[in-house]
Amino acid sequence: MLKPEQKTASLQAQITKLANHHYGLLGQARAARQVIDQLIADSEASLALLGILQIDTRLTRQIQEVKIEEFDFSVRTYNCLKKTQILTLADLMGKTETELMEIRNFGRKNLFEVREKLAQVGLVLGSNILVPEYLSLNRDDG
């Protein structure tokens, strides 16, 4: 049989052990909460970025779908482009100057006109300025 002092010491040791275990669990819970808070913040930031990218993707597609008629090209330039199925800004931007010059009846003046009209809106032939990397990597038609 244990003496009262021994029982008290044993109970104090058990209480200390339980308290330490409790504080350890509390510390782990706080650390877990910090991780969860960071994950939530990261998720919210990711969702916000995704929203921006979706808006930008829609705008990019709308820009690419602009018809060449809206550039008011001369009749000859317009007819040459149309004849070769260059009907939208995306079609035109996908061509190089060399490819345009290979079009029948399309000459230097026509090329100069195309370059000039594109430059007025800040674009350059043959560039992928309208197709950001994320759009070409994450292709979805929605």
Quick structural overview:
The protein has 142 residues and is mainly α. Helices cover 69% and strands 0% of the residues.
Polypeptide structure, described:
Helix content is 69%, strand content 0%. It is mostly helical and 142 residues long. The chain folds into 2 domains: 1-64; 68-137, DNA polymerase, domain 1 (Orthogonal Bundle). The radius of gyration is 34 Å and the shape is rod-shaped. Mean pLDDT is 79; it is low at 130-142.
Q: Within the CATH hierarchy, at the fold level, what is the topology of the largest domain?
A: DNA polymerase, domain 1
Tell me what portion of residues adopts beta-strand conformation.
under 5%
Taken from the alpha-carbon principal axes, the silhouette is rod-shaped
Structural class, judged by helices and strands?
Answer: mainly alpha
CATH superfamily of the largest domain: 5' to 3' exonuclease, C-terminal subdomain
- Summed over residues and divided by their number, the pLDDT gives a mean of 79
Give the ordered list of helices and strands. HHHHHH
Total of domains: 2
The count of DSSP E runs of length 2 or more, i.e. the number of strands, is 0
Measured as a percent range, the helix fraction is 55-70%
Largest sheet entry? none
| C-alpha end-to-end distance | 79 Å
Whole-angstrom Rg: 34 Å
User: Number of helical segments?
Assistant: 6
- Name the poorly predicted regions: 130-142
Write down the CATH class of the largest domain. Mainly Alpha
Instruction: Provide the CATH architecture of the largest domain.
Output: Orthogonal Bundle
